[in-house]
Amino acid sequence: VQLQASGGGLVQAGDSLRLSCAVSGRTFYSNPIGWFRQAPGKEREFVAAMWWSGGSTYYADSVKGRFTISGDGSESTVYLLMSSLKPEDTAVYYCAAKRPPWGDLRRLDYDYWGQGTLVTVSS
């Protein structure tokens, strides 16, 4: 599975931004996809995750109600729509895919990672 994240940029607090993660690979539909972020000087943390089939989604408490993860199977792309952005959302955002056993999708033990895309939120 290969992943390519894009869509980062510089925005102001309160703005919205949509990140994209292009996913490829023979069996990518069976892999849950997660978004993670890493702020300067901090550890990488879970943001959101989803299953392609069934559409179940999961969010970190810090982004619940502001961020939405979704997938477009026809375009093999997972999106992260970020609204009401705050300066503390500033980070490099990564998308990742997981092989079985699935375990807790909030954990960092994903098997495939895309390169990050930088999101900077100014106050």
Structure description:
It is a single chain. The chain is mainly β and 123 residues long. Helix content is 0%, strand content 48%. It contains no helices and 11 strands. The strands form 2 sheets. Strands 2, 4, 5, 6, 9, 10 and 11 form a 7-stranded mixed sheet that branches. The chain has a 4-stranded antiparallel sheet with strand order 1-3-8-7, with no helix packed on it. The chain is globular and about 40 Å long. The chain starts with a strand and ends with a strand.
SS element count, helices: 0
Q: Which bin fits the share of residues in helices?
A: under 10%
Main β-sheet description: 7 strands, mixed
Shape: globular
Name the beta content range: over 45%
Mean pLDDT: 93
Radius of gyration from the alpha-carbon trace, in angstroms: 13 Å
What is the element string, with H for helices and E for strands?
EEEEEEEEEEE
**Alpha-carbon distance between the termini?**
37 Å
Structural class: mainly beta
Task: Note the quaternary state here.
Answer: single chain
Strand tally is 11
Helices, strands, pairings?
Layout lengths: L1 E5 L2 E4 L4 E8 L8 E6 L6 E6 L6 E3 L7 E6 L4 E6 L8 E7 L14 E2 L3 E6 L1
Quickly describe the structure.
It is built from no helices and eleven strands. With 123 residues, the protein is an all-beta fold. Strand 7 (67-72) and strand 8 form a beta hairpin.
Attribute tags:
mainly beta; 123 residues; four-stranded antiparallel beta sheet
